[in-house]
Amino acid sequence: AGPRPWTGPFAPPVRPLDVLGVPGQINLDYAATAPCARAAADAVTELLPWYASVHRGAGELSKRCTLAYERARRSVAGFLGARPGDEVIFTRNTTDALNLLAHALPATTTVVTFASEHHANLLPWPAGAVRLPVPASPGAAVRALDAALRELRRGTDPVRPVLVAVTGAGNVTGERWPVAELARVAHRHGARIAVDAAQLAPHAPVDIATLGVDHVAVSGHKLYAPFGAGALVGRGDWLDAAPPYLAGGGASAYVGPATHQVRWASGPARHEAGTPNLLGAVALGAVCAALGDADRDELHDREQALLARLRAGLAAVPGVEELRVFDAAAPRVGIVSFVVAGRDSAVVAAELATAGIGVRDGLFCAHPLTRRLIAEAAARRGWRNPPATALRASIGLGSTTEHVDRLLAALGRR
Ligand code: PMP
What we know:
This protein is α/β, with parallel strands linked by helices. It has two domains: 26-37 and 295-412, Aspartate Aminotransferase, domain 1 (Alpha-Beta Complex); 43-293, Aspartate Aminotransferase, domain 2, CATH 3.40.640.10. It has twelve helices and 15 strands. The strands form four sheets. A seven-stranded mixed β-sheet has the order 2-8-7-6-5-3-4, sandwiched between helices. Helix 2 packs across helix 8, helix 4 packs parallel to helix 5 (179-188) and helix 9 runs parallel beside helix 12. It is globular and about 70 Å long. The mean pLDDT is 94. Residues 93-95, 118, 120-121, 167, 171, 196, 198-199, 219, 221, 365 line the site of 4'-deoxy-4'-aminopyridoxal-5'-phosphate. Residues 26-407 form the Aminotransferase class V domain. This is Cysteine desulfurase.
């Protein structure tokens, strides 16, 4: 084991899924970026003395780094239930992963999304993408997709590719989407499905094989690893047929003297040009391994109990109204967005910050959805002047009942 740098204000955690933090600071903003898990910190610390180039050097250090990088790739594949032949391409984050997929779409592909998606799953898609209205329930989402794909297929060339791109769990409400059912519908119509698992993967198992999905995107920094590494995992055929995402060293298998003389690599290397983010990938791989070894049911039950406490507590604070797409009982991960009657969300967030509580305020990179949900929440309560933005509290591995209760107490104090 390497040195243990976590002294001073950092509590020294002892289990792989313990997270680092600063005493006195309550982080209820896991949905934006989760704190670093012990597993990630240890993996990085242990590799630091071996720090050297990946896939490029012949020295012992480089060989070790290359092994660590490829082991991280296998760990991510295992964590996400990748099938034999699926590819894991390291990216910077989910946004980068979905942009990579958009870049690799066959020319005539139509992409179908819902209007409730995060901007990362709305904006990368080519012109002509179909944006289905926000559905009222998970069942309505499945039916709407079925109808839209039937319509899309009518009269068009049946081999024209269609990609359905949906979130696994929404970043505004934490509500879970019926991914397996949507995948079945997509495949029945000969379409593919990509899942934005940025919010789902930190909270619940995402198994590509079981869900029957084609592509999955995740962000390391929401999965208890530091910033800068994410992944696109799944079928590789479109990716292998596309030009490299970035042109350069590593993506090229052969380069001749003339400008056109280049043969691109296949597999992950094709889209990972340039020196890779070794430490980011290794940290992500380490957390994937630790989460894979953990009792996910136990983690889920613990989080759901905290979430229930948070939601019930918020409902009891006068003037607080939760945002939701589906009904209040729909399954969700540890995320709640809300508005407070007559209060500017940015001011409330700033007040919470002075009490040492970190939440997020804003429209959460899902502007069309959040604006709509704020208006709906205000209409339910009969408010005439809804706030322009919302607040979001999100929990995860390091969250405790004390954190939740401190938030509730601070909100109830005004
Ligand atoms: N999709 C969802 C559902 C998200 O919550 C986020 C992050 N807020 C993203 C995509 C984008 O993730 P990143 O910023 O790590 O690229």
